[in-house]
Design brief:
The structure holds two protein chains of two kinds. Chain A contains eight helices and no strands. Chain A is mostly helical. Classes of the chains: A mainly alpha, B mainly alpha.
Chain lengths: ~180, ~140
């Protein structure tokens, strides 16, 4: 179903449908995360991926256009590039451990260590919350910095837009700025 | 190494499916000229990387890594690895930040070029460059 949604995104020309399909994709991946025991990730994906990013994209569409013009370029070269990359990645997975095996390298180092130490060191029932806020607090700090920087970037880009629009509406831009002060 | 046994294929099928999804996203990014669609493709690529990570953390017969409230942990219960979950939680939030920045750039590009198709933007830029060269030529001819 995920693959079907992704292929539909390639085929469709209406950008509105594309955005809706990307929301559907996010919800389906949230379902997948639940079956893979990652309930916190599923929760975030449903809220952020399907909620906020769909709203942001719809906002962009309302400021731009709603339909895609067909591209004159051939799709053969990208297809070859994608196939080669995919083959290299599949070759890379051949060395990976089987899905869900308990003795995989990922399962034998820090993960179990966190699980063993967490109950008496942190005392929060949810292991994901404990690691996120306690053991890996600096990651979260860095994440906050990234979000802050992105927020400033978006504000700078969009606020310029509003001011220029107002300047176009009014014949005397200097007069407009004086009024604001 | 005994490739192509049924156990090996079943154990790796999920990785291959995620790679197919990843390549779908990459194809959209490369082949489509519309900038909004490129962002959607980037999101699909990103989400499939998340799925790959989460599936690495899964243990067969395991459950979500949430302990009972009284913290009396049954040693029989297997919990899936919480570390990939934490990393991907961070990655989702960073992903939405980059998406919003990309969308803001698209709005800005649309304002400047009045289109969000890559081909048309390239055409306009070419025209602008040609006009610049022509003006420069005219100036140097006037000086001579």
């Amino acid at each position: 179903m995920l693959a079907a949604t992704a292929f539909a995104v390639i085929r469709t020309r209406s950008l509105f449908a594309t955005v809706m399909l990307s929301g559907v994709f996010s919800f389906l991946s949230a379902l997948l995360f639940v079956t893979l025991d990652a309930v916190d990730v599923a929760f975030t994906e449903a809220a952020v991926g399907a909620g906020i990013s769909t709203v942001l994209m719809l906002g962009t569409l309302s400021l731009t256009s709603r339909f895609e013009t067909p591209s004159p370029r051939s799709s053969f070269v990208p297809f070859i590039v994608v196939c080669v990359t995919g083959a290299a990645l599949v070759y890379g997975t051949l060395d990976m451990p089987n899905f869900g095996s308990p003795d995989a390298p990922a399962q034998t180092h820090v993960g179990p260590d966190y699980l063993a130490r967490m109950p008496h060191e942190v005392g929060v029932p949810n292991a994901v919350t404990a690691i996120l806020a306690s053991y890996r607090g600096f990651d979260t700090l860095g994440e906050t910095a990234v979000v802050f920087a992105a927020g400033i970037g978006v504000m700078l880009l969009i606020s310029g837009l509003r001011r220029r629009r107002r300047d176009e509406d009014l014949p005397e831009p200097d007069h407009d700025r004086k009024e604001q002060v | 190494m005994d490739l192509m046994t049924a156990e090996f294929i079943l154990g790796h099928l999920n990785y291959w499916l995620f790679i197919v999804l990843m390549m779908t996203g990459l194809y959209i990014v490369i082949a489509k000229g519309n900038l909004v669609k490129k962002i959607v493709g980037l999101n699909i690529f990103q989400a499939s990387v998340f799925m790959l990570y989460i599936s690495v953390g899964k243990i067969s017969g395991g459950t979500a890594p949430i302990f009972p409230l009284d913290m009396k942990i049954d040693p029989e219960v297997v919990y899936s690895n919480p570390l990939p979950h934490v990393l991907i939680l961070t990655a989702i939030v960073v992903g939405i930040a980059t998406t919003s920045l990309g969308l803001a750039l698209i709005v800005r590009i649309r304002e400047e070029f009045d289109t969000i198709e890559e081909d048309q933007i390239e055409e306009i830029e070419q025209e602008m460059a040609l006009a610049e060269i022509a003006r420069h030529d005219a100036q140097s001819a006037g000086q001579a």
